[in-house]
């Protein structure tokens, strides 16, 4: 994947299985967001191939969710309406989504007047009502305060565990190694667009094993934990 | 008493005494500009929103032309519309020259680039910030254009008010295509030009006062709108780290 002369991702080959909770870690500019956008189809690959299971439904969350100047309910319904659901039905289903993330009581409030954490939960509701098989999250808690971060993380854990009877593959980028440890089942470490480590979460946080298999990732983790 | 104060006093009398000639000119002027803005906004908002989102080969050239049209003098617009509507022109068969419709068309042509260019800028900024998220929800070019224009509606209302201000205060185009015919195509700006040249400063000043009041009201409306928008949107969301 290239942007002009810059190779944002290169020599990347990986397979993500259904039900996995994959964390993408690496410093800024390592290619985490580009990989998410590539997987979601927001950017076509400049070389190589991307294959997804037939009819896989995806939803993506961004660090700062975009909310229209409209009610919280309308913002959730918008996602459904764009997916082809009639507006009336979308509004009814939106209320279920809001209830799922604990925002039923603010359904009629303007989405832009909600707190950062509430807006991110709203974005989660907007994604959840689409019943995605794959959810991609680009640093969803990076700009939130600790309390809001915990609320969003709890919902991510529920969704990733398939608590609603909806098994979901979750791929998220994060700088928060504690969050990665709590939520992920597999960790991909990227550096300058290259995948340098692809390990189960327990191996990634095993210092000796990480140093042996991926020294660069070991240095990154050490630096982050100091 | 000086000419200025004498004229001002007579002008004030004309305004407060509901002078029928004065108010007929004012009503016609507002009707022409409102009609022109309505048509220009319907077209300009759609074109501008689409241009803000769509990416195509000749986009840079189209934007360069659009931005150049922002600076087109109103007399040039008047001349072009005159040539189009004159009997030997391509639209001569309509028989619109020196009519209300001709003035609406001229002001529409004058204001359309303003509405289109400002809408394009506003929607393009929104697209840069949020377009990717709407794309991820499945919104195509037209839907993004409409949704982002709707989301920017308060900013676009300011554009519409600015467009009306430009239309109502121009003189060159309506003078050329309207002909400034008394009781028929005479509007505030053309009447001011004529009455001043005739030396009837009182009527010219009365019209000037009304025109000034209209422009002031528009600016007040823009300021109120901005204030209301800032109050309703409030401070940045709590819980969001800068």
Topology, element by element:
The complex is a heterodimer of chains A (226) and B (242).
Chain A: E1 2-3, E2 6-7, E3 21-25, H1 32-40, E4 58-61, H2 72-82, H3 87-100, H4 116-128, E5 134-138, H5 146-160, E6 169-173, H6 177-183, E7 186-191, E8 194-200, H7 201-204, H8 207-213, H9 215-225
Parallel strand pairs in A: 3-6, 3-7, 4-5, 5-6
Antiparallel strand pairs in A: 1-2, 7-8
Helix pairs in contact in A: 2-3, 2-4, 3-4, 4-5, 8-9
Chain B: H1 3-16, H2 20-53, H3 59-69, H4 74-85, H5 100-136, H6 141-151, H7 153-169, H8 172-178, H9 188-198, H10 201-233
Explained architecture:
The complex is a heterodimer of chains A (226) and B (242). With 226 residues, chain A is α/β, with parallel strands linked by helices. Chain A folds into 2 domains: 1-47 and 133-226, 3-Layer(aba) Sandwich (Rossmann fold); 67-130. Chain A is built from 9 helices and 8 strands. In chain A, the strands form 2 sheets. Chain A has a 6-stranded mixed β-sheet, sandwiched between helices. Chain A has a two-stranded antiparallel ribbon with strand order 1-2. In chain A, a hairpin with a 2-residue loop joins strand 1 (2-3) and strand 2. In chain A, helix 8 packs antiparallel against helix 9 (215-225). Chain A is globular, with a radius of gyration of 18 Å. The mean pLDDT of chain A is 90. Chain B has 242 residues and is mostly helical. Chain B has a single domain, classed as MetI-like fold (Orthogonal Bundle). Chain B has helices spanning 3-16, 20-53, 59-69, 74-85, 100-136, 141-151, 153-169, 172-178, 188-198, 201-233. In chain B, helix 1 (3-16) crosses helix 10 and helix 4 (74-85) runs parallel beside helix 8. The longest helix of chain B has 37 residues, at 100-136. Chain B starts with a helix and ends in a 9-residue tail after the last helix. Chains A and B meet through helix 2 and helix 4 of A and helix 5 and helix 6 of B.
């Amino acid at each position: 994947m290239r942007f002009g002369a810059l190779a944002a991702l290169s020599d990347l080959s990986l397979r993500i299985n259904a039900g996995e909770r994959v964390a993408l870690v690496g410093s800024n500019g390592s290619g985490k967001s580009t990989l998410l956008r590539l997987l979601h189809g927001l950017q076509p690959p400049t070389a190589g191939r991307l294959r997804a299971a037939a009819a896989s439904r995806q939803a993506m969350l961004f660090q700062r969710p975009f909310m229209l100047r409209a009610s919280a309910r309308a913002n959730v319904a918008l996602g459904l309406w764009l997916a082809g659901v009639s507006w009336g039905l979308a509004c009814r289903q939106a209320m279920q989504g809001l209830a799922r993330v604990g925002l039923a009581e603010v359904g009629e409030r303007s989405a832009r007047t909600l707190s950062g954490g509430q807006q991110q939960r709203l974005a989660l509701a907007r994604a959840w009502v689409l019943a995605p098989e794959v959810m991609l999250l680009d640093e969803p808690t990076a700009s939130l305060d600790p309390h809001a971060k915990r609320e969003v993380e709890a919902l991510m854990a529920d969704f990733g565990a398939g608590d609603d009877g909806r098994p979901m593959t979750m791929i998220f980028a994060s700088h928060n190694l504690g969050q990665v440890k709590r939520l992920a089942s597999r960790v991909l470490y990227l550096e300058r667009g290259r995948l340098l480590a692809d390990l189960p979460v327990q191996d990634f946080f095993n210092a000796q094993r990480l140093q042996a298999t991926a020294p660069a990732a070991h240095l990154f983790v050490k630096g982050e934990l100091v | 008493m000086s000419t200025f104060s004498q004229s001002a006093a007579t002008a004030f009398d004309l305004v407060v005494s509901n002078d029928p000639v004065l108010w007929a000119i004012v009503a016609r002027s507002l009707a022409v500009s409102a009609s022109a803005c309505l048509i220009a906004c319907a077209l300009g908002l759609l074109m501008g929103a689409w241009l803000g989102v769509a990416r195509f080969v000749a986009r840079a050239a189209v934007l360069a032309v659009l931005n150049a049209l922002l600076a087109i003098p109103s007399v040039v617009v008047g001349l072009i519309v005159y040539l189009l509507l004159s009997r030997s022109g391509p639209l001569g068969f309509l028989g619109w020259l020196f009519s209300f419709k001709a003035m609406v068309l001229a002001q529409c042509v004058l204001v359309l680039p303003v509405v289109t260019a400002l809408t394009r800028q506003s929607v393009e900024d929104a697209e840069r910030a949020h377009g990717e998220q709407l794309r991820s929800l499945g919104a195509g070019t037209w839907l993004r254009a409409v949704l982002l224009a709707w989301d920017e509606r308060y900013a676009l209302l300011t554009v519409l008010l600015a467009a009306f201000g430009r239309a109502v205060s121009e003189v060159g185009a309506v003078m050329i295509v309207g002909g400034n015919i008394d009781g028929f195509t005479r509007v505030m700006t053309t009447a001011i030009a004529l009455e001043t040249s005739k030396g009837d400063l009182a009527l010219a000043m009365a019209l000037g006062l009304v025109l000034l009041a209209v422009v002031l009201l528009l600016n007040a409306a823009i300021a109120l709108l901005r204030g209301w928008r800032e109050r309703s949107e409030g401070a940045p969301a709590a819980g969001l780290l800068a």
